[in-house]
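Let us walk through a complete example step by step. Step one is to write down the protein sequence. Step two is to encode the small molecule, ribulose-5-phosphate, as a SMILES string so that its atoms and bonds are unambiguous. Step three, shown after the inputs, is the structure prediction itself.
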Amino acid sequence: MYILSPSILAADFKELGKEIQTVDKAGAQYIHIDVMDGEFVPSISLGMPVISSVRGTTKKVFDVHLMVDRPERYIQEFVKCGADIITVHAEACTHLDRVIQQIHDAGARAGVALNPATSLTALDYVLDKVDMVLIMTVNPGFGGQKYIPSCTDKIKKLRHIIEDRGLAVDIEVDGGINKDTVHTVLSAGANVIVAGSAVFGEGADEKVREFLEIMSGYGKIQK
Ligand SMILES: O=C(CO)[C@H](O)[C@H](O)COP(=O)(O)O
Ligand SMILES: [Fe+2]
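Step three: the predicted structure of the complex.
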């Protein structure tokens, strides 16, 4: 099933609730929320109070991408403020297996993100324990960057591994996804599409519909 997860990093923060409702009404199934700590990545974005305050604006899935060192410190709090999926970076966790367990114990779905330079082998012993893998298609930390072409092969390889092992793990892609690059990642095997700067701005509702229309050419769209 194909899912669109607009990244609010590119939204107008003074109208955040309305921006979320616009993409919700247009059919986006997830809302992608980027949390940056100024340590794991250079920038600082937003945290729990913002997530709590927009939680009431939509019933859609909050897809929280933690670009945070040692995320085990915050899992329970993010679930409490409304996260439905929590994705942690393999590079930020000393005990990745334990953090995945912690996310599930807190009642959320668990994702693991890999930076462009991180090998798929980081997933060898956890792939059967996660709900989603996030393949970063830019170096994390900022919106509006260019898609890194070497990530395409990684998405393809991961799709083969998931199929070979008979698993039902979603492949999310994040960074530089627009109406051109989305074809590349969909053909490679991604099924959860994050897009920030290609969605928010003028006509966000129309852009969501355009993405969903493209995605429907590859398979069933999740309702
Ligand atoms: O995780 C992220 C950055 O680290 C964002 O989700 C991503 O960059 C989305 O922005 P864009 O679609 O503009 O590239
Ligand atoms: Fe993200």
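Step four is interpretation. The first strand starts at residue 3 and ends at 6.
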